[in-house]
Structures are given as C-alpha cells and as structure tokens.
Amino acid sequence: MNQINPGLPNGLWPDEANPRWLNKGDNGWELTSAAMVGLQSVPGLVILYGSMVKKKWAVNSAFMALYAFASVLICWVLWAYRMSFGSKMIPILGKPNQALAEVFLLAQYQAENYIPTADYVFYQFAFAAITVILLAGSLLGRMNFYAWMLFVPLWVTLSYTVGAYTIWGPGFLRDYIIDYAGGYVIHLSSGVAGFTAAYWVGPRHSHDRQHFPPNNIINMLGGAGFLWMGWTGFNGGSPLAANRITSLAVLNTHICTATSLLVWLSLDMAVYLKSSVIGAVQGMITGLVCITPGAGIVDSWAAIIMGILSGSIPWFTMMVLHKKSAFFQRVDDTLGVFHTHAVAGLLGGLLSGLFANPELLKMFYPTCSHGPGFIYGVLNGDFKRGLHQMGFQVIGALFITVWNVVVTSLICILISRIIDLRMDEDDLEIGDDAAHGEEAYALWGDGERDPPPLRFRMTPRIPSFCRRPYTNQ
C-alpha cells in the first residue's frame, strides 16, 4: 500500500501539478501567447512611443507606457479581473474581488477549456494593459505624468472592465456581439477614450504641434516589429487552445496586416509621391486592428478585403478628413490613435459582421447563437439573421463609444480637480528634463546652448603655482 496515501497503490500518487484536465499543448501555447501580448507593450510600445516622438519627449512617452503596464497588473489581480469576468454585480459589471488565491488560479478555467485559470488571468491582463498604453498615444507630449498615474487605475476600473464584462464576460452583449480578440473591447475603446482624454488635457505646445519629428525611425521600426509579431499571440491566444481556429487566426492576421501596409504605402506614393516609413507603420497598425475582431471567424479571402479597406479608409480619415475637419483639428491626438484604432476597430467589427463564416462561428462560439455574417446570410437564405448580426455589431460599437466618452470625460474632470492634467507651458518647452530630470540621449538637447568652441576647451590649464600673484596696483 502507498504509505503517503493508504487509499492508493504504491507508485500511483497523483501528480498534482498535472491534473487530468490539463492539456500541456494548450497550456504552453496560452502562456506563450500571453507573453507575446506582453512583449507588444514592454518593450514594443515603449520603444515605438519613445522613438516616434520628438527627442525631448522620448523618456516621458516610454515611461508612460512602462508605468501603465505595471499599474494595470496590480489593479487587475486585486479587483479588475473579477469586475471583468466575475460574478454579476450589475448588468454591465462584475463584483470587485481579488484574483490571487491559489485555489482559484490553479483550477481549470471553465469546463470546455484545458488550461489553468492563471493563464487566462495573465492573458487578459496583457490585453487590459495594452489598451491603456494604446490610449496613451493620444496624450503624448503634454500630459502631466502625475495626472497619468491617477488616470490609469481609474480608467481600467471604470471603463475597460465594463467593455470586457459586457462583450467577453457574462454581460448582456456576450451572446450577440462578434468580437474575436478585441476590436471593440480594446481598439475602439482605446481610440475613443484617447481622443476624449486628448480633448480634456488640451493640445501640445504650439511649436511641438507644428513640428514633431520622430527622434529615431530605426528604433521605431523595431518597436513596430514587436507589435506586428506579437499580434500572433494577440489573435492566436483567443481560442485558449492550440487548435484549428488558432492557426487560421494567425494566418489571417498577417495577411490582412501586409495587405493594409501595402495599400497605405501605395496611397502615400500616389498622393504625396513619396514612400513614407511612418505611413507604412500606420498602415501596419490599422491592418492589425481591423482583423482583430474577426481573425478566427472569417475566411482568408475576406482578410485580404479587410486589409484593403483598413489600408484605405483610415488613411482617408487621417490624411484627408482630419486636415479638413474643424472638429478633428480642435483635438490634438498626438499619434492619430483615433484613426488607427477607433476607426480601424469599428471597421473591423462591422466587417466581421459582414464576413463571419457560420461554420467558423460554431467552432469558436460553440455555446452561443451568433448569427452568420451578412454575406453568408444572403447566400444561405438566412437574410434576417445576417441582418440582425450587423445590427448587433452597430449596437455594440455605440455602447462602447458612448460609455468611453462619458466615463473618460468624468475621470478627466475628477483628476483636474486634484491636479493639473497638462504640464505648464515652461515645462512643455523643456520636455523630459522638466518632467523627470532625465534625457533620452547623451547629446545636446533642445534649447541648450552649444558647447564652447574647441580652441577654448583645449587650452591647457596653468597650474596654480605658476600663476602670477594678484596685486592691486
């Protein structure tokens, strides 16, 4: 008999680290996906933001991303995860509670999944963190860092959790909205909230707004590369398993992104007669965002169409409409997050309702009754369900938009009563050195005097004992 547990024969003590329900392949893939999504933020967006802004804002921009990543994790495990995916408190929000107990984290995450709950907690944290960091792209170059420190936990608690609960959690839109990996929950919300917060914070210094060149385009491409390749986990991890939907989602992600980049680049060349590196990065981002809500539930031919539209429609809103619209000109959206995330996220959500394949929907949503994409509804004689699904996609977009405008405004107003949202004018002229007492590069910074001429710096110093004594004659 087993001396440790007399009820078990010798040699059959159960391996508590590997229970029967655990699938090591799914578990390994989910942990890898979560790590890839985390790498999109740290170092991906840290490098992208720190390189894409003017030199004097490199430290501040990168630090905003780094702080948000750490802050969101603590909020997430202490209360926000349960508010997003826990038991109901109100129809749009779960009860706040911690997600730290081993009994909870090591248990199986839902009967149809074969991973520990800890995987899902970390994966969803990476989603929450990147949402806030994307939002920060609208505020770079002028937001008071201490106001940002208050904004991050408040926004995650009062805004992000509501979107996650209503569409992905047990909320009232869960069984109706198609949002495979966050076109609405992440991108539409970050784009709308970023634009709203930019309105309340106010514009950059006038000189910065007119002249804001990136300080390191090569590093910017490195950060963009982390973002693109990390999206393999972003969309590949959503099925919570290493299955066929995962494979299709990963392929569709890269097809749409490459198409979008090429379309944006072609439009830049046709209109401005130059191939812009920054434009190519923007086209890459809009492709990644657009495919996200439908990556695993649309066919690959649809991914190409989505890439064509995500490379052209956000290009038009950013490069044409933005410059002609007084409304857009009033708000200083530093990196154009509204266009690259809100417009592209909305476009992806609507196109997912248009192109969703009913067979793929059954594989990804086995317990829900989502209607087919409108095109498949027409082709299969199920016109009403396809039309209803398009209607639900519109309703979901309206809910996320209105909630983020209202709540983000209230958060900004509240913080403004405590501390200034925007740095003062003198500090805006200086940048990083005023905000943090640090600079990104060991070079002469903006606004500093040139070093003394070389002939003066190389003059040998005369030892004190060789100098003539001073006499007042």
From TrEMBL:
<feature type="transmembrane region" description="Helical">
    <location>
        <begin position="301"/>
        <end position="322"/>
    </location>
</feature>
<feature type="transmembrane region" description="Helical">
    <location>
        <begin position="62"/>
        <end position="81"/>
    </location>
</feature>
<dbReference type="InterPro" id="IPR018047">
    <property type="entry name" value="Ammonium_transpt_CS"/>
</dbReference>
<keyword id="KW-1133">Transmembrane helix</keyword>
<comment type="similarity">
    <text>Belongs to the ammonia transporter channel (TC 1.A.11.2) family.</text>
</comment>
<keyword id="KW-0472">Membrane</keyword>
<feature type="transmembrane region" description="Helical">
    <location>
        <begin position="147"/>
        <end position="168"/>
    </location>
</feature>
<feature type="transmembrane region" description="Helical">
    <location>
        <begin position="214"/>
        <end position="233"/>
    </location>
</feature>
<feature type="transmembrane region" description="Helical">
    <location>
        <begin position="245"/>
        <end position="265"/>
    </location>
</feature>
<dbReference type="InterPro" id="IPR001905">
    <property type="entry name" value="Ammonium_transpt"/>
</dbReference>
<protein>
    <recommendedName>
        <fullName>Ammonium transporter</fullName>
    </recommendedName>
</protein>
<feature type="transmembrane region" description="Helical">
    <location>
        <begin position="390"/>
        <end position="415"/>
    </location>
</feature>
<feature type="transmembrane region" description="Helical">
    <location>
        <begin position="120"/>
        <end position="140"/>
    </location>
</feature>
<dbReference type="Pfam" id="PF00909">
    <property type="entry name" value="Ammonium_transp"/>
</dbReference>
<feature type="domain" description="Ammonium transporter AmtB-like">
    <location>
        <begin position="29"/>
        <end position="441"/>
    </location>
</feature>
<feature type="transmembrane region" description="Helical">
    <location>
        <begin position="180"/>
        <end position="202"/>
    </location>
</feature>
<dbReference type="InterPro" id="IPR024041">
    <property type="entry name" value="NH4_transpt_AmtB-like_dom"/>
</dbReference>
<feature type="transmembrane region" description="Helical">
    <location>
        <begin position="277"/>
        <end position="295"/>
    </location>
</feature>
<dbReference type="InterPro" id="IPR002229">
    <property type="entry name" value="RhesusRHD"/>
</dbReference>
<keyword id="KW-0813">Transport</keyword>
<keyword id="KW-0812">Transmembrane</keyword>
<keyword id="KW-0924">Ammonia transport</keyword>
<dbReference type="InterPro" id="IPR029020">
    <property type="entry name" value="Ammonium/urea_transptr"/>
</dbReference>
<feature type="transmembrane region" description="Helical">
    <location>
        <begin position="31"/>
        <end position="50"/>
    </location>
</feature>
<feature type="transmembrane region" description="Helical">
    <location>
        <begin position="334"/>
        <end position="356"/>
    </location>
</feature>
